[in-house]
Amino acid sequence: MDPKLTEVSQYFERFKAACVREDIDTSANLLSQLKVLLTSFRSLPPLFEVTPNAVQELTIARDIYEHAVLLSVKMGDQDAFERDFFQLKPYYTDARKRLPRSPQEHMILGLNLLRLLVQNRIAEFHTELELLPAESLEDPCIKHAVELEQSFMEGAYNRVLTAKQTVPNQSYDYFMDLLAKTVRDEIAGCSEKAYDFLSINDARQMLLFSSDNELLKYINEEHPEWEIKDGSVIFQKAKETAPCKEIPSLQLINQTLSYARELERIV
Amino acid sequence: MATAGTEDVEMKELPAPAAAPSNSAVTSSPPSVLQNLKEIASLIESGAYAREVRRIARAIRLTMALRRKLKTSVVSAFLNFVLTPGSEPHARLCSYLPKEDDHEMEVDTASSVVQAPVKHSLPELEIYSHLLVLIFLIDQKRYSEAKACSSASIARLKNVNRRTVDVLASSLYFYYSLSYEHTGDLAEIRGNLLALHQIATLRHDELGQETLLNLLLRNYLHYNLYDQAEKLRSKAPRFEAHSNQQASQYLFYLGKIRTIQLEYTDAKESLHQAARKAPVAALGFRIQCTKWAVIVRLLLGEIPERTVFMQKGMEKALRPYFELTNAVRIGDLELFKSVAEKFSATFSMDRTHNLIVRLRHNVIRTGLRNISISYSRISLADIAKKLRLDTENPVADAESIVSKAIRDGAIDATIDHKNGWMVSKETGDIYSTNEPQMAFNSRIAFCLNMHNEAVRALRFPPNSHKEKESAEKRRERQQQEQELAKHIAEEDDDEF
């Protein structure tokens, strides 16, 4: 086998071992070394040359990047995830014909979708979704992410939180935790508008806190305008929009001026 | 006397009209088609000499009218007429034509009645003959040969840099892309299209730029690469549209991209404009536009009127979308699901499947809105039942959905958690708010916009669509033709 290829495989083995051991620093070091070594292969994107070892090189590079992605999840580094995922993407799309399917492909794609959802980049979420062929949508990892997005959009937040139990893979946990936090903020926002008041118990249940103290702390930090009286949380309804008697003068002026301008143009 | 592109073709002298009627079986096509083609050729020639792009555009339109009547014999006769029989382009083009039994090298027999004796094979004529062969092959559904022919034409085009060829070139690009699309190899030509676009931009060939941009967008959208399409579109130079068809295609692709990116308002505008600008004959295109426009309107929460679906010729194609609209209007999840399943094949073919999935949220919203208007107070359990939420915990789901809807301003109500019901607020008098003002403003803005656009469109040089020539223009044209005739006569004198 090609000496470079052997060297890379050895490093890769050590890298995988470090990952299993949960040794973040060593893994990170090995990863950077591996990436430098990979630049010497000419059969990888963007060159995609056809060399005799092309298939092996492509496969090993793809595996390296997949592990890099999983490592970034463990480290909790979303930027690194994004970078590694973008490097991984050509292997899935352009090199699809040359390589056999990777078993982790769907899981990683699902992970990416989840990340976009958590970061509230819904437009990109849908664009990515369009790229997937119809049969990928049946895959549990991807289906999980899609249903999650739907529940999020509809507002059925409790479904989002129960979905936490049904993650297909433990690497999803990191993002699900982030999502839980976002969901909590959303629920708080909605409750504010929808309810006049809520008893402390109910509020605690809805916002998924395990004790009253946490609830109170949360309210103090995030929503100081909520009052707490007689064992219930009163949402600030007093500043509800009184029927607006004022005229939005600036807007009206702008509109009328534009009418005048346009009409003048009509010869 | 300049043939600016010094190509490899020599002057050809036609033999004197040999009145020999050849085996009449071959010239089975009515001579009128051939006659028309020759007139077109002369039109192109005169246009090339006079550097009048309009004439070439007119020539292309006339060709489109003749498309149906083309046959192999006619095409080969035309090729013989236009190009030197022994020359390289001629040989190449003839090789693409399917061989028929009675196909022989036609000596220019009945052909040469019309034209002047001396002919120059202009690059325009050569490119035009490429175009003709390509159109013929595509109409005959011989896509692999069309592919080969178009690739050769593109290679040939790279050497020719004349404005008069631009119009022909853009048609060629279109058919090039079409032939590859039919054989399913669109991805291959992406690199070529990008290079061509670059060349067109360098040469300030605006029509070519427009056409190529549209072809590239179509290429990307074919493979669902919305991200790349958007990147290209945002960076490519934009200018006033030269061709109505290209403009409407561009708007359609733009609308599609915007829809996927969840920018529904922009998408709605683009799609509506595209449907309006499209020529009435382009029924398929308009149907597509309407389908996407309907879905975007549903996603925005508006219900399209029934008349949209009843447009002439579109009823059958739009039927699935009509039923979908119905389901959304009623707000019934079950019906929505059944309709989506029933027509899932159609939706997958139109690639609107993912969008339909997004509609589920809208169905729930509409249902909720109906409920909140009809009931002053209703329990959450009943809401869940009416919405037919089929999950494990419908009441809790209903509660969260309702609270989100309230937050988004879709309904006006409050929830009483302890008693587990929703109380709707009274809808105040709309006229006392600013709503009418807003509605009027949007309509006024729209009308003024249309007026501005119409005025701007007037400024364009008289379209090649306009057939009537004013008296002044006719005089001008006649004068030019006289000069041309004199020019040619002088040439002859120089020769002898």
From TrEMBL, chain A:
Q: Which residues form a coiled coil?
A: none
Q: Provide the PCI domain boundaries.
A: 79-251
Q: Name one GO cellular component term.
A: cytosol
Q: Please, which domain of life does this record's source organism belong to?
A: Eukaryota
Question: Keywords of this protein's UniProt record, alphabetized?
Answer: Proteasome
Protein's GO biological process:
proteasome-mediated ubiquitin-dependent protein catabolic process
The entry assigns this protein to a family as follows: Belongs to the proteasome subunit S14 family.
What is the protein's given name? PCI domain-containing protein
UniProtKB/TrEMBL annotation, chain B:
Basic and acidic residues composition-biased segments:
464-489
Give the multimer and partner information.
Component of the 19S regulatory particle (RP/PA700) lid subcomplex of the 26S proteasome. The 26S proteasome is composed of a core protease (CP), known as the 20S proteasome, capped at one or both ends by the 19S regulatory particle (RP/PA700). The RP/PA700 complex is composed of at least 17 different subunits in two subcomplexes, the base and the lid, which form the portions proximal and distal to the 20S proteolytic core, respectively. Interacts with UCH1 and UCH2.
- One GO CC term of this entry? proteasome regulatory particle, lid subcomplex
Q: Which InterPro entries does the entry mention?
A: CSN3, PCI_dom, PSMD3_C, TPR_PSMD3_N, WH_DNA-bd_sf
Does the record's keyword annotation contain Zinc?
no
The lineage's top-level taxon is Eukaryota
> SUPFAM superfamilies in the record, alphabetically?
Winged helix' DNA-binding domain
Locate the coiled-coil region(s) and give their ranges.
none
Entry-linked Pfam families? PCI (PF01399), Rpn3_C (PF08375), TPR_PSMD3_N (PF25573)
Q: Belongs to which family?
A: Belongs to the proteasome subunit S3 family.
Q: Where is the composition biased (Low complexity)?
A: 15-31
Annotated PCI domain ranges read 248-429
Q: Name one GO biological process term.
A: regulation of protein catabolic process
| Stretches the record annotates as Disordered | 1-31, 460-496
Q: What does this protein do?
A: Acts as a regulatory subunit of the 26 proteasome which is involved in the ATP-dependent degradation of ubiquitinated proteins.
User: Which organism was this protein described from?
Assistant: Linum tenue
Q: Which SMART domains match?
A: PAM, PINT
Keywords linked to the UniProt accession: Proteasome
Per its record, how is this protein called by name? PCI domain-containing protein
